[in-house]
Amino acid sequence: MRFAHTNIVSVNWKKLADFYITTFDCKIVPPIRKQSGEWLDKGTGLKNAKLEGAHLLLPGYGENGPTLEIYQYQNGIPKGPILPNKRGFGHIAFEVKDVAQILECIIQNGGQTQGIITKKEVKGVGEITFVYARDPEGNLIELQQWN
Question: 65 by DSSP, 3-state: which?
Fold first, then answer.
């Protein structure tokens, strides 16, 4: 068994994929997906499901690493902003060399801050510097640096 991917359902998959490519050095794993049909309806439990999107190879794991799957459904349903303490899947996290630098990159690429950069000693583990931010569609991202 191995972890395969995490999915984000997007309003504009190309724009969101570009954000993750530019900000986190993700790479598109061909092919671009354009999927529909009875098989997709059955697997998702939706009627007339149609989607388009791509898998992005996440940094740090090589060519066979996990991916971030960004899909855009033809009939997507809007959502409100997810707060860090809402139950269920909450955020994705990237371990980075410089939290402030990547947070600035997130902002420059259309994202926004959620919290402020904070440091804390975690006994037996080390010192973490972290902050929560949001991608251009409001999905939560944690940036973390360990010393």
Answer: coil
Single-letter amino acid code for the residue at 102: I
**Cβ-based neighbours of 30, under 8 Å, separated by 6 or more:** none
- The predicted-structure confidence for 63-110, as pLDDT tens digits, reads as follows 999 999 999 999 888 888 888 998 888 999 999 999 999 999 999 999
Round to whole Å and give the CA distance between 56 and 69: 6
Residue 31 CB partners (closer than 8 Å, separation 6+): none
Instruction: Report which of 12, 16, 34, 32 is spatially closest to residue 24, judged by C-alpha positions.
Output: 16
Contact 40, 49 (CB under 8 A): yes
Q: What is the pTM of this model?
A: 0.92
Rounded distance between C-alpha atoms, residue 132 and residue 130, angstroms: 7
- Burial of 79: CB neighbours in 10 Å, binned 0-12, 13-18, 19+: exposed
User: Phi/psi at 66 (nearest 5 deg)?
Assistant: -65, 160
Sign, CA dihedral 13-18-21-23, equals negative
The two tokens of residue 77 are 């349903």
The residue type at 10: S
